[in-house]
Amino acid sequence: MSAEIVVSGAVKVFGTGAAAVAALQDITATVPEGQFLCLLGPSGCGKSTLLNAIAGFTPLTDGRITLGGRTVAAPGPDRGMVFQEYALFPWMSVEDNVRFGLDIKNVPRAEATVTVDRIVATLGLTDFRKRYPKDLSGGMRQRVAIARILALDPPVMLMDEPFGALDALTRRTLQDELLRIWAELGKTIVFVTHSIEEAIYLADRILVMTYRPGRIKRDVRVEIPRPRDTASSDFNTIKRELAALVMEEQQRFTNAELHAPAVD
Ligand code: ADP
Ligand code: MG
Asked: pLDDT of 74-113, one tens digit each?
């Protein structure tokens, strides 16, 4: 199956009447198989809504999304999702969390063990495999969340600010590991972030979104060879360009918040 994602005229309106919120308006984009795409924009511009629509969690109001030519109507094993909050089972050890999806798929025990061993090693979790989520740092928990998805080997990984809660050093380490895994396994990745630097560090391509309703403001290719030097002039040229675009949308967000009726 090809893992190309095609978004055609995607519209999402939450609620009806006076309370209606237009979250996405006419989003059209093709994400080729193997591309590392970032969705960038300030809070409220519809990044999560678009990602959730690709995941099949959120039905569109209008338009269509296909994956490998098939319309996305529900979540499926061809798409793995990683959230900002570590969606782990607290009562399961690290290795059981990683194994869980394989059990659901009825993968034979011995085969599942081989996969779990390999993925646990890939994510640097070997020494932690018997531990429980509560005994892990944020960075380690997020490694487990990524390991759980990789165990299922979906062609598409959807990531919603997965490193947003981590300190800068841990974040960079996990970014580097994600890039290594992506290069090795050839996944198609759609990665949501509001960090300009994170988007430039990771992506082949960045879609800058507008504040409500979310549209594509700019489609930017990042052609700097990896590993990318965040201090290089190429990096900073793109950074300045993106900062100006994001700032405009941030301003619209601030204005909307200032003029929003008070909520209790
Ligand atoms: P982002 O991830 O870029 O911060 P979201 O996709 O979460 O943005 O939200 C886009 C807009 O849609 C926001 O104005 C948000 O308040 C609204 N929204 C998101 N989910 C819902 C929902 N379930 N019901 C109503 N409004 C929603
Ligand atoms: Mg979001």
From this structure: 999 999 999 888 789 999 999 999 999 999 999 999 999 9
CA distance 158 to 6: 14
What is the best residue among 11, 13, 16, 21 to mutate for testing ligand 1's pocket, by most ligand atoms within 8 Å of CB? 21
Rounded to the nearest angstrom, the distance between the alpha carbon of 52 and the centre of ligand 2 is 10
According to DSSP, the residues that pair with 10 across neighbouring strands are 27
The ligand 1 atom nearest the CA atom of 46: 6
pTM value surpassing 0.85: yes
HSE-CB of 42 using CA atoms within 13 angstroms: 19
| Segment 204-261, tens digit of pLDDT | 999 999 998 999 999 999 999 999 999 999 999 999 999 999 999 999 888 888 887 6
Q: Which of 175, 219, 209 is nearest to 40 (CA)?
A: 209
Who lines ligand 1 at CB under 6 A? 14-15, 21, 23, 41, 43-49, 212
36-58+74-258 CATH, one of 3.30.200.20, 3.30.230.10, 3.40.50.300, 3.40.50.2300 = 3.40.50.300
Residue nearest to ligand 1 atom 12, measured at CA: 23
Question: What single DSSP character describes residue 214?
Answer: B
**Can you tell me the distance from the alpha carbon of 166 to that of 157, in angstroms, rounded to the nearest whole number?**
20
SS3 60: coil
